[in-house]
């Protein structure tokens, strides 16, 4: 079977490529798409087919989906431009006769959700067999806090007592590879979460265990948190986005735990501590 992966040069995409190879897919049956040629070249050396493709330049997708049994559309990282980016991929995949689409989406109701919901609608209207992978918030989104807490002894946020059913990219990538390489997933929408949801106070405890000192969580109102992030050097757009995501957590929108991810993996999901230690 042949598989094409977009966003293959990113954190998740590279893990998906590794997992496809672990699943025994012949390297030449995998096509990796992205912009970063140095990353693509490292996979080309391993026998993976690679192509430089830019969502802003539809012509770069000419021919890349010819004969593809399955396409993994890893959502674009360009917030605000995602629907156009995804449409470029979906139009090219359909025109070139791709067999099915697997899309990395998000849970509904979040600050990031509107572009994902619009993409899911396009996929369903387009009519190709599809599988939607609604990926949880990555545990690795908190990796940067470990070093910060090592020196400061604290983390800040605006999530209150809200819980995050986070999952590691490695688990989400392995699940994507399973969906791409096995049958029975057509029309499915999987909500892929970790097996356990944690609060930011629990996150602080786990980080404390990792750095060997007490780490406390200080909760702030959403606007104050956004200002605090800006004072730490983030641009206002990124600060506002992260504060809105914490507000989603406070509102309980990332708390739901499902068994979809562990079912696809055939084992428990990686823990918060494993994700932060990687
Ligand atoms: N669930 C979560 O917590 C969470 C958090 C962050 C992001 N996400 C979403 O999940 C996706 C995958 O996560 P990730 O960690 O792998 O993100 P990432 O490391 O930022 O990777 C993003 C990928 O998108 C590609 N890309 C961006 N703009 C492009 C363009 N104009 N044309 C072609 N390729 C383009 C990048 O290609 P190059 O590297 O070649 O430029 C890269 O391969 C993200 O893109 C985002 O939609 C989810």
Automatic annotation (TrEMBL):
It comes from the Bacteria. SUPFAM superfamilies: NAD(P)-binding Rossmann-fold domains (SSF51735). Residues 7-181 form the NAD(P)-binding domain. This is NmrA family protein. PANTHER family: NMRA-LIKE DOMAIN-CONTAINING PROTEIN, QUINONE OXIDOREDUCTASE 2. It comes from Jonesia denitrificans (strain ATCC 14870 / DSM 20603 / BCRC 15368 / CIP 55.134 / JCM 11481 / NBRC 15587 / NCTC 10816 / Prevot 55134).
């Amino acid at each position: 079977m042949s598989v094409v992966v977009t966003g293959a040069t990113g954190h998740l995409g590279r893990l998906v490529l590794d997992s496809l190879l672990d699943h025994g897919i012949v390297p030449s049956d995998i096509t990796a798409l992205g912009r970063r040629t140095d990353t693509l070249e490292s996979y080309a050396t391993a026998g993976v087919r690679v192509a430089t493709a830019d969502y802003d330049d539809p012509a770069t997708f000419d021919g890349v989906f010819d004969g593809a049994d399955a396409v993994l559309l890893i959502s674009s990282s360009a917030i605000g431009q995602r629907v156009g980016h995804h449409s470029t991929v979906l139009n090219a995949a359909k025109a070139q006769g791709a067999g099915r689409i697997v899309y990395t989406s998000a849970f509904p109701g979040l600050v990031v959700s509107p572009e994902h919901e619009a993409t899911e609608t396009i996929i369903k209207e387009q009519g190709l067999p599809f599988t939607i992978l609604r990926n949880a918030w990555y545990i690795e989104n908190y990796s940067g806090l470990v070093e910060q807490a090592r020196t400061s002894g604290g983390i800040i946020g605006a999530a209150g007592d809200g819980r995050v059913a986070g999952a590691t990219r490695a688990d989400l990538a392995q699940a994507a590879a399973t969906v791409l390489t096995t049958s029975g997933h057509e029309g499915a929408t999987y909500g892929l979460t970790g097996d356990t949801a944690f609060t930011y106070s629990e996150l602080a405890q786990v980080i404390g265990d990792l750095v060997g000192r007490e780490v406390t969580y200080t909760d702030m109102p959403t606007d104050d948190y956004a200002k605090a992030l800006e004072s730490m050097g983030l641009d206002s757009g990124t600060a506002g986005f992260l504060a809105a995501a914490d507000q989603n957590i406070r509102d309980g929108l990332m708390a739901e735990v499902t068994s979809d991810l562990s079912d696809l993996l055939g084992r428990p999901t990686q823990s918060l501590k494993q994700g932060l230690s990687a």
